[in-house]
Amino acid sequence: MSIVEIKGVDKTYQQGKVFVQALKKIDLTVEKGDFAAIAGPSGSGKTTLLNIIGGLDMPEHGHIRVDGNVYADMTRSQMAELRLRRIGFVFQAYNLLPVLSAVENVEYVMQLQGVAKKQRRDRAMTILDEVGLAGRYHNRPAELSGGQQQRVAVARAIVSDPAIVLADEPTANLDSKTGEGLLQIMEKMNREKAVTFIFSTHDQMVMSYARRLIHIRDGEIANGESGQ
Fold it and tell me: For domain 36-56+75-227, which architecture applies?
């Protein structure tokens, strides 16, 4: 069963007086439970594609359906609600709130969802334990290493049991050992909880963990997509 369906998607950006076509007639289907990587060099369009899947950006043309929702039929508030409840995001720059502790950062999504304080605190601590951050609940981002901050970001992304997690270059700022540990955590969650993961990456290690590779170059899905 497909959780992402994209047909004929185009996206163009204006840079000064120049128009750059970031995506060209993209057709893509991702099945529920996939552990997939959109792979390509810098500037290939992979982050743009990930942002469009997540509803953070919209194309000029094309059909997008995610978790049964057709984006063209949705209002801004409906899109925001979908992102809040059904899509988790892991950003390359972590995007943690610096004034909040690790557990408060993880709780934040549940707070927006209206989850009761004790329930969200217990849930946040459990997820932090699962990503290897027991005992770091009350550290702020500045008191954590890059790898620990990214683990907090992963915990925040999956704490509310989203249908899909979108991870933009999640290992880019990490050493190989830390990056591999993070991938193992996400693979375990994919396997045990059936959360769909889609990465954008140019990291060979991420590609080796992915069960499906979607190659993109110059804004187009390349021939030779692979999976297992």
Answer: 3-Layer(aba) Sandwich (3.40)
pLDDT tens column, 156-193: 998 888 999 999 988 888 888 888 888 998 898 899 88
- Predicted local confidence at residue 91, as pLDDT: 85
Tokens 């334990």 correspond to: 129
Q: 143: helix, coil or strand? A: helix
Instruction: Delimit the domains of the chain by residue range.
Output: 36-56+75-227
CB neighbours of 177 closer than 8 A, spacing ≥ 6?
none
Interacting residues of 27 by C-beta distance below 8 A, sequence separation 6+: 6, 7, 8, 9, 221
CA atoms within a 13 Å half-sphere pointing along the CA-CB vector of 13? 10
CA distance 25 to 28: 10
CB < 8 Å & 24+ apart, contacts of 209-215: 209/35, 209/37, 209/183, 210/35, 210/36, 210/37, 210/39, 211/34, 211/35, 211/36, 212/34, 212/35, 212/36, 212/37, 213/36, 213/37, 213/39, 214/28, 214/36, 214/37, 214/38, 214/39, 215/39, 215/40
pLDDT digits (tens, 9 = 90+) for 27-57: 999 999 999 999 988 888 999 999 999 999 9
